[in-house]
Amino acid sequence: MSEHFFDYYSKYAQQTPDKVLLRIDENTLTYQEFMDKTATFGSAMQKLGIGPDDKVGLVMPNSIEWYVAFWSAVRIGAQPVPIDPQSGSFELSKLLPATTVKMLFVSEKYRTNQIISTVHSLVPEKITLKKVVCFADEGVVPAEDCYISADEFARTMGEKTCEIYQPEYLHTMSLACTSGSTGTPKILSVPSGGFLSTQRDMGDYLEFTSDDVMMLGMTLYHQGGFGMGQQMALKGGTVMYQPQFNPVTFLETVQKYKVNIIQLTSTLAKVLLSTPDFEKYDLSSVRICYFAGEVLPKEIADAFVKKLNIRVINIIGSSETCTMVVWDSAKDGDTDPSDFRKLYFTDYRVIDENRNDVAEGETGELCVYTDGVITDYFGNPELSAEKILTDEQGRRWFCTGDLVNKLPNGIVRFAGRSKRIIKRGGNLVHAEEVEACLLTHPKIAAAAVTDEPHPVIGQQIVAYIQPKGDEKVTRGELARYFDGKLSAYKVPDKVVLVEEIPKDIGKIQFKYLRKKEYH
Fold it and tell me: Which of 13, 101, 110, 460 is 20 to 30 Å apart from 353, CA to CA?
């Protein structure tokens, strides 16, 4: 049997039982509490008839309960399926059957989404499940037999002991759901052994220790935010999340708990740097800032490296691969943060449309090997065959959809997502490049770039902008700012001011953007 996450959790529960494994606001979970609670909920699920390879859905925001529910399923060999807690009935009506979940763990609500009510509109009338376990007061739990409060579930069905399932190396640990750029659900089979080894190797590369405290800006239900947290948990350290990202609370928490590693995206970093009185917060405990999910402008990297004396790690990664390639300010010096190299436990190819390697100096698609590459897209063999290549040694390579330029000395320069190219007239514009330039503007706290159909030029560039404070940003002002920085055809054709760029998973959530426009 291969090494398992519970080998680590069990060891730390014995060595440091009262150490905080997870902190979300003032709520904590120690290593011993983790073992006790996963035994209770795992055994309760077994009483329901849930066992190895059964799917268990989680429609919950960042919380201690999310973590317990996830790992309780893993403990018995079942496969947790984290789902965006903002999902409405239309999305859930597709996802629940597609993932074949047999039961759900749900919170009462998240932001404006009444989760229990949304699920109740589908279950049991349209979808049959064994149980919906509600982390909520008894009064809001629906009356049907398939609904039960988490307290009652644990009290009436849970035991103090629960065997730990020992998975094979390629056993599917969990199913990760991502909407992808088309909005169609993609369901990723995450391999147990490969996921563990890549997260352990990354923690080794970053020299994490059991004394470290890590604060993440991404969410637990997103594979990236969850996985980065595992890099710390595998070292016996402490991992912290927020129920939802708030820049002031984030900075206060870093200061209060002397956080050593923070994880951000470029958007979240710009929001933090734009926080009033940013300079007054004591960030001296932070030694690493970990970026993923978006293009990192050099100006933002420099703000952390040169002004705050914080080592910056920028990775291209995806839910399908775990970590891929890296830019590290401690090792890559003053080069651009979009120039990446492979790690000692990863490899890459740059390929053309015929899957042949491109020559140095040419642009192609980044294809990556890590041990954590998904085994397949659950229920979608066609997409699996298109995106996952297996070589003669049996290693899985993932075709990322990232366009990169193949440079000398094993470096690849990120050019953009093939799916996010805007075809404006006769020019191709990478949305990420425009976003990166917008993020350097002094009046802009956050920005997101997409396209709209245009009768003359085919597609026009639309910039959603979250200004700092009461600032107003116009297209004319952006044209002047872009002058000399980017080509004139890359200036946004339309500027939409919004109160907030939706950034729940760190990455911009375009499907929620239009709801945020000023009226």
Answer: 460
The amino acid at 508: I
Distance, CA of 384 to CA of 403 (rounded, Å): 20
Are the C-beta atoms of residues 48 and 79 closer than 8 Å to each other? no
The model's pTM:
0.85
Tokens linked to 458: 């085919």
The answer to whether the beta carbons of residues 164 and 3 sit under 8 Å apart is no
Q: What residue spans define the domains of the chain? A: 5-165, 419-516
Q: Where are the alpha helices (DSSP H) in 160-297?
A: 192-205, 223-233, 247-256, 266-273
Got the DSSP string for 317-367?
EETTTEEEEEEEHHHHTTS-TTEEEE-TT-EEEEE-TTSPBPPTT-EEEEE
Phi, then psi, of 493 in degrees rounded to 5: -75, -25
Residue 374 reports pLDDT greater than 60? yes
- Find the mean pLDDT for residues 133-141: 96
> Residues 40-58: what's their mean pLDDT?
98
Q: What are phi and psi of 378, to 5 degrees?
A: -55, 125
Contact 96, 116 (CB under 8 A): no
For residue range 309-338, what is the model confidence (pLDDT) as tens digits?
999 999 987 889 987 889 999 999 889 999
Q: Are 404 and 416 in contact (CB under 8 A)?
A: no
At 188 the three-state DSSP class reads strand
Q: Which pLDDT tens digit goes with each residue over 150-167?
A: 999 999 999 999 999 999
Check residue 485 and give its pLDDT.
80
CA 502 to chain centre: 14
CA-closest candidate to residue 224, choices 204, 198, 206: 198
CATH number for the region 5-165 comes to 3.40.50.980
Fold observed for domain 419-516 = GMP Synthetase; Chain A, domain 3 (3.30.300)
If one compares 186 and 32, the residue with the highest pLDDT of the two is 32
| pLDDT score of 248 more than 60 | yes
Count of alpha carbons within 13 Å of 110, Cβ hemisphere only?
A: 26
* Rounded average pLDDT over 58-67: 97
CB contact at 8 A, 253 and 263? no
Phi/psi at 218 (5° precision): -85, 175
Tokens of 67: 């973590």
